[in-house]
């Protein structure tokens, strides 16, 4: 889809042809049920014309980092929610893009798995340093993961507030108790018309 107005710029240049430029992961993992883990994660490489043996070699090298070693031949129906999301994220990483677009990737997970996935994503980001645009409705998640949070209003959507997150990296779970974490959350909630309770 083309924007109604304005333009999309990457590295200072207007970007018209966007197909294949970004790794994308929607809310649902969208793993193909008839393909095992290995064949699912190499899909973007196959679509770009990479020979299947080379695509499989590259994926096999990364499976341990994504917690999927030993699950190469397993089909999606037999995976936990967290494993499905890691496979979907590996598929996005294998798109060979400098930019990942993640649309509420942890929204359907239970609270404990979600926190584990957040920490795992932070470690992955520290290793690969890709630009990540992460969409979430969870303000705490946004503050925990981001360097900058852009809060959007309800319809019609517009930028309600941009907040730079002043927390050091690497991020740690204990930081959610820090005053600056709470202040960032409160600022964002207020900009969205939600008053936080004392």
Describe what is shown at a glance:
The chain is of the alpha/beta class and 198 residues long.
What is the overall number of helices? Answer: 7
Estimate the global geometry from the Cα principal axes.
globular
**Beta-strand proportion:** 5-15%
Helix content: 25-40%
Report on the architecture of this protein:
It is a single chain. By secondary structure, this protein is of the alpha/beta class. It is 36% helix and 14% strand. The model has no long low-confidence stretch (mean pLDDT 87).
SSE blueprint:
Blueprint: E1 9-10, E2 13-14, E3 23-25, H1 37-41, H2 43-47, H3 52-62, H4 81-93, E4 99-103, H5 111-128, E5 131-135, H6 139-145, E6 148-152, E7 159-164, H7 179-191
Parallel strand pairs: 3-4, 4-5
Antiparallel strand pairs: 1-2, 6-7
Helix pairs in contact: 6-7
Primary descriptors:
198 residues; alpha/beta; two-stranded antiparallel sheet; 14% strand; globular
């Amino acid at each position: 889809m083309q924007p109604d107005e304005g333009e999309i710029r990457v590295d200072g240049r207007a970007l018209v042809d966007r197909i294949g430029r970004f790794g994308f992961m929607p809310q649902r993992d969208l793993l193909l049920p008839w393909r095992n883990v290995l064949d699912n994660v190499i899909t973007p490489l196959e679509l770009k014309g990479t020979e299947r043996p080379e695509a499989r070699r590259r994926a096999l090298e990364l499976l341990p980092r994504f917690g999927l070693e030993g699950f190469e031949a397993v089909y999606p129906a037999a995976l936990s929610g967290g494993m499905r999301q890691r496979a979907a994220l590996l598929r996005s990483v294998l798109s060979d893009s400098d930019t990942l677009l993640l649309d509420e990737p942890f929204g359907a997970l239970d609270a404990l798995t979600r926190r584990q996935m957040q920490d795992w994503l932070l470690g992955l980001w520290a290793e690969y340093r890709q630009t990540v645009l992460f969409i979430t409705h969870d303000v705490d998640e946004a503050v925990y993961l981001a360097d900058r949070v852009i809060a959007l209003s309800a319809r019609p959507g517009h930028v309600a507030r941009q907040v730079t997150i002043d927390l050091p990296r690497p991020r740690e779970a204990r930081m959610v108790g820090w005053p600056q974490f709470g202040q960032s959350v409160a600022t964002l909630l207020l900009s969205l018309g939600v008053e936080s309770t004392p």
